[in-house]
Amino acid sequence: MEKFVQLDSEMEERDLLLLMVTEAGVFLQDGQKHGLQPEELYKQTGVGKNFQGVVLIGKDGGVKSKTNYPVEPQTIFSLVDGMPMRKAEMRTSKID
């Protein structure tokens, strides 16, 4: 999580939200508790309580990737940058 937090501008550019799921709840990257319950995320993502890694969920709510730790931020950024919606965003920002 620390690696991702250190790359705040890259996270913001890709509109990524980082959540940490523990038995105590779901937390945002700044440590604030999120309203979701862990069980909701387990059900949505299809991972169990013992999963330790990164689940990438698209803006459409679909699971795009499940990657076990350790995960380098660039791996996730590359996945996101390869998605059609992100490619369109990058093309639009080059025009502006």
Report what the structure shows.
By secondary structure, the chain is α+β, with helices and mostly antiparallel strands. It has one domain (2-95). The protein is built from five helices and four strands, in the order ααββαββαα. It has helices at 2-5, 8-13, 38-45, 73-81, 84-95; strands at residues 19-22, 25-28, 53-57, 63-68. Strand 1 (19-22) and strand 2 (25-28) form a beta hairpin. It is globular, with a radius of gyration of 14 Å.
Layout: helices, strands, pairs:
Layout: H1 2-5, H2 8-13, E1 19-22, E2 25-28, H3 38-45, E3 53-57, E4 63-68, H4 73-81, H5 84-95
Antiparallel strand pairs: 1-2, 3-4
Provide the descriptors you would attach to this structure in a database record.
globular, two-stranded antiparallel sheet, 4 strands, 96 residues
Provide a brief overview of the structure.
With 96 residues, the protein is α+β, with helices and mostly antiparallel strands. The protein is built from 5 helices and 4 strands, in the order H-H-E-E-H-E-E-H-H. Strand 1 and strand 2 (25-28) form a beta hairpin.
Major sheet: order of its strands? 1-2
Helical residue percent?
40-55%
| Main sheet overview | 2 strands, antiparallel
State Rg.
14 Å
- Report the β-strand fraction as a percent range: 15-25%
